Amino acid sequence: MTRLSAVGPEAADTLAAVHWQAFTPGWSAAELTELLDSPGVFALLAQAEEPCGMILCRAVAGEAEILTLAVAPPARRQDLARDLDAAAAGLARQAKAAEMFLEVATDNIAALRLYEQAGFQRAGLRRGYYDRGDGVRTDAVVMRLDLNTAGPAAYPKAD
């Protein structure tokens, strides 16, 4: 059974370890600590026997943003990303956010599918947003979720 829990800067090393399993390069504990010390930033950590997923978000001035979502390769295809995303949307609603944004690489088909199934809509394109190294850059799709409208069951409307 996977457990989701809200964490702060004290968990930066664990969050960084999960992020590095999912991305190359991953974010460092120092980068995560700096973000977590910023206004409106929150993180959720997913743990089974070991930490296996994380999401980092910011909710300020009525808007929320998913800064990163990472699932360790052995924990993929188990709806963990969906669960992290849904929990983060709930926390963003509690923080009075009306909408949630994110960027996702155009070649990350699984993530695009996840967010579209969750009710996110394509809102724009950022050309050359991701640096893949060796001069290779990849575009990002900007996606938006209205947190105030009825959507998929993963996002029940707040009371």
UniProtKB/TrEMBL annotation:
The keyword Acyltransferase applies. Its EC number is 2.3.1.-. The keyword Transferase applies. One of its GO terms (molecular function) is acyltransferase activity. InterPro entries: Acyl_CoA_acyltransferase, GNAT_dom, YpeA/RimI_acetyltransf. Signal peptide: none annotated. Residues 2-148 form the N-acetyltransferase domain. It holds the Pfam family Acetyltransf_1. It comes from the Bacteria. Keywords: Acyltransferase, Transferase. PANTHER family: ACETYLTRANSFERASE. This is GNAT family N-acetyltransferase.
